[in-house]
Protein 1
Amino acid sequence: MTIRASKALLLFALGFYYTLVVFNNTNDYNTNLTFVRHVLLMDTTFPGNNGMWRAIHAPAVPWLFFGSIVIWEIITGTLCWWAGFRLMRNLRSSAVTFNAAKKLGVIGLTLSLLMWLTAFLTVGNEWFLMWQSKEWSGESGADHMFAIAGIILLYLVTPDVEGQA
């Protein structure tokens, strides 16, 4: 039962993280939108790099990127919270039932991994060369969150068996 509860608590923790991320992104949207705008403009990447043709100067595009990230975060956080509640509701269920209840958590954690890997590490970091910027790089945070979500996902999908601690 302890292992089952720990899986639910980790999903709650990640749901709480996303709740704060969404709060910060909507409460101080201008700061976060500015971050996205600078990444897309590539205005603080290494001078003279050959990737500057990728920069996006259209003023509406940062809003679209930022809005889609926030929606992605809302969905991911909601799924993590919901999955945590489903696991807590099934703590005393059979192993088969508890394992089946993990589905929402797997979906939420996969969305989290996809966000960090696709939106931040691939599109932001590699396509828009965010790693070259000292002022506007989210690489370190994305690395950490990808690792955290990945570890939780690996732990979550470990099958629970009858009589486990």
Note: The helical segments are 2-27, 29-41, 60-89, 95-100, 103-127, 139-157.
Protein 2
Amino acid sequence: MFRIIAAVFIFLSVVIPHSNAQARSAPLRVAIVGLVHGHVHGFLQQSLHSSEISIVAVVEPDKQLLEQNAKRYGFGPNLLFSDLEDMLGKAHPQAVLVYTNTLDHRRVVEICARHGVHVMMEKPLAVSLEDALAMQKAARAAKIHVLVNYETSWYRSNHAAYDLVHEGALGDVRKVVIHDGHNGPKEINVEPEFLAWLTDPKLNGAGALFDFGCYGADLMTWLMNGQRPLTVTAVTQQIKPEIYSRVDDEATIVLTYPKAQAIVQASWNWPFGRKDMEVYGRTGYAITVAGNDLRVRSSGSANEQSLAARPIPAPYDNSLSYLRAVIVDGAKEDALSSLDTNVTVTEILDAARRSAASGQTIRLPASR
């Protein structure tokens, strides 16, 4: 069994070649839509000058926020727009990168669908199943890609755990425990415009339940090959109501499947940030350690092993390469970011919110 496990983690020294045609191809024309999501700053700091994209427009209705960030990142006045429809008609991007509040995702997708423009947004997909299904309908009709970006999609450790599951090295999945959280958005000093909508139940859908619960719902749906859970049960709390008076800051979601269970722990109360998961199969387990490492134990072994996960093959190793490959090269969508997976994620979060409010387990319909 350990031969199987060890084989998964052999470092691959193969360099994936890129054709000269691809190297010479024009960068992907993208527009930034929204500046109120704090992740936009990490993206711009890392990718503003990437050769893979060309930023052709920035859309933000808050004029002060737009001008502030134009100065910060050097965007010329010709790139600045206050209205999405106006921008699409003038700048003609191939894709938009969405950094709005979550409620606005549906509006953005429906407008982009009318213009045939692809969309990648920051997680989660939507504030409700109704919105998620509307986005799915619009995307299918327009034949556009709608992708959801999660930080954890690019973790080597998660892909290694997935490989172990699907190669049979752990046996059938029985329980998965997923931890995602940090001290709290106010405590880690997120931008005021970000904090304002994160703590608004209409704009964010909930608090920690949606902000961090989406990671676990996404990973579990991926591990289960898209299978929807039978039931969803959730408990939420306001441990710091003096800070988070309108939304939960602590959440636990329990998902049941015919022969498996998942526990998704989402928190704005932990002393340190963490994103990891434990996957227990019938014959072994894998525990991810941050982004790159694993602890693994298999049947017949007295001790667990600590292992470094191998690199993720390009173009599935970062969001920009992936987006460009899907749109320009016709690469297959990864299930972690796919619209179908994330409609299920939203269905789980929607049911979790109802469960927490009612104190009842929600049984999902056989189909939607």
Note: The first helix runs from residue 2 to 8.
Protein 3
Amino acid sequence: MPKLKIGSIEDDKPVSLTIKLPAMVYRDLTAYAEILKREGQQSTDPTTLVAPMLARFMATDRAFRKLRRGIQQKGSASAAAKSE
């Protein structure tokens, strides 16, 4: 069986977020949670999959990482200039 991209769900202090998903996306989240349960992973509520899936998506988006590094470098350069 292929390895899923989302494995164990980290227990981190959550931030509350209210979103509306298309029904098809929620059905897919539910199916994903069921597959994780069958593979012996922890039983999980489909809503707990949203954060790790978004994190995985952003971590593997090369353009996002490149642009984010540029923003961070610009921010640290301006902070260094202010401290001089």
Note: The mean pLDDT is 82.
Protein 4
Amino acid sequence: MGFDARQFRDALGCFPTGIAVMTAGSEETSHIGITVNSFTSVSLDPPLVLWCIDRRSRRYPHFAQAPGFTVSILASGHKAVSSRLAGQGEHSLDGIALVPTELGPPGLADSLAIFECARESVQDAGDHAILIGRVLRFARHDGAGAPLVYFRGHYGALAQGEPPEGVSGRRTTDSD
């Protein structure tokens, strides 16, 4: 029995993910963006995050060689921006509402959170690379709305609200 890559991808799609846009570049090279759903935290001390990019992407060299990148966690109102930066070809940030950062690559306006990261390392992993960034600065925007999510090949949004009664929202571990 062979391994069916399409069925594997469909099975992975059963895991709902948030959507982020990564930006990189400088004023000399212009800023570019890419939509990802592979963003996650790695470590609190030091503060590290990671995301993955296809090494065959034309955007790969820009991100792999950049000294850093900015992560914008998308709100439900960012669907059009996410779709635009997810596709082949279009990667310019022209016409997208942006906010400046100290690092250089801008964040997307009205994002739920923005992380400015220095490149920590780039690791090969099959047909993708794992980019690990050290978070230098971050901002959280509580009034930005619900997150944009991706599930089974479609965009969606989570309802905002308070945790159910009796749930504090605090994660516990065995060491607590």
Note: The longest strand covers residues 113-125.
